[in-house]
Amino acid sequence: MESSNDILERLKGKGCRFTRTRKAILDLILTAGESFSARELSEKLAKSKVSINKATLYRELAFLREEKVIRELSLCDKVRRYEAMTEHKHCHAVCVKCHRVECVELEEETILANKKAGAGKNFKVLDVSMEISGLCCDCDKD
Questions:
Q1: Cβ–Cβ contacts within 10 Å for residue 101, how many?
Q2: Residue 44 maps to which CATH number?
Q3: Do the Cβ atoms of 90 and 101 come closer than 8 Å?
Q4: For residue 105, which of 134, 132, 70 has the smallest C-alpha distance?
Q5: Long-range contacts of 40-48 (CB under 8 A, 24+ apart)
Q6: Cα–Cα distance for residue pair 113/117, rounded to 1 Å
Q7: Which residue range is the domain that position 97 belongs to?
Q8: Composition of the chain by helix, strand, coil, percent to 5
Q9: Average pLDDT, stretch 11-39?
Q10: Of 16, 78, 101, 129, whose Cβ has the fewest other Cβ atoms within 10 Å?
Q11: Would you say 21 and 52 are in contact if contact means Cβ atoms under 8 Å apart?
């Protein structure tokens, strides 16, 4: 996976600006290995002493999504989340009670089966997205 500095240099080469806020967002998303809602990103940035207003955060997320640096997820909890765009294939397990989201590795056979299902319908599959809903181990105890 590219580092935030590599991504920013690539974007700079396309004429995009380098900002401390953009770098802070990228660092957080790239190193976390998980998805975040805008609210969670804002809270984590604040803890890192990076102040950002809501409009700027959403503009930055839209920009990074358009540049295919991050992807936007809309899971069963109806909260938009953002994660790094990687070649790493995984799905998301969402707790229906506390809304915790965990990444789950996908087996190559599962990816191929989904691609084959789409191809069987004369459909060119560009990406495979899966979601698992259930209870996390903490909520299952209750």
A1: 22
A2: 1.10.10.10
A3: no
A4: 132
A5: 41/82, 48/24
A6: 6
A7: 90-141
A8: 45, 20, 35
A9: 87
A10: 78
A11: yes
